Amino acid sequence: MLGHLTSRDVTAIQIDMVFDGKDREVVFGSVYLPYDSTDLPPSKEMVSLINYCSHNNYPLIIAIGCDTNSHNLCWGSTSNNRQKDVCTNEYADQKIS
User: Is residue 3 classed as helix, strand or coil in its secondary structure?
Assistant: First the structure.
């Protein structure tokens, strides 16, 4: 576990595995973005995780466990909320899948 990147809302682990045909260190992250947060996403913790992976050139697999609490009609929600634009744009900018 990456203790310096883990908090109440983020859990991050780093493992060695074959990725894109090479032995690589890969980071897996599980992120919860509370619906009642006064800060727009991404959270500081999520940004720290993204920056750590970017700085160290580690692939980051995060969407597996990401609960953004964002609502957007484009992915089947019945309404939009203020988090939807930030999440949609942030994920596109960071190429998170």
Answer: helix
Contact 57, 90 (CB under 8 A): no
In the chain, alpha helices (H) = 44-56, 83-94
Which of 47 and 79 is assigned the larger pLDDT? 47
Asked if the 3-94 domain carries CATH number 3.60.10.10, the reply is: yes
Other C-beta atoms closer than 10 Å to the C-beta of 6 total 16
Rounded to whole angstroms, what are the CA distances from 88 to 7, 24, 68, 74, 92?
A: 23, 28, 10, 10, 6
More confident residue, 1 or 68: 1
Rg (CA), the chain: 14
- Domain extents for the chain? 3-94
Backbone phi, then psi, for 16, in 5-degree steps?
Answer: -90, 130
Instruction: Give kind and range of the element (H or E) at residue 28.
Output: strand 22-32
Mean pLDDT of the chain: 78
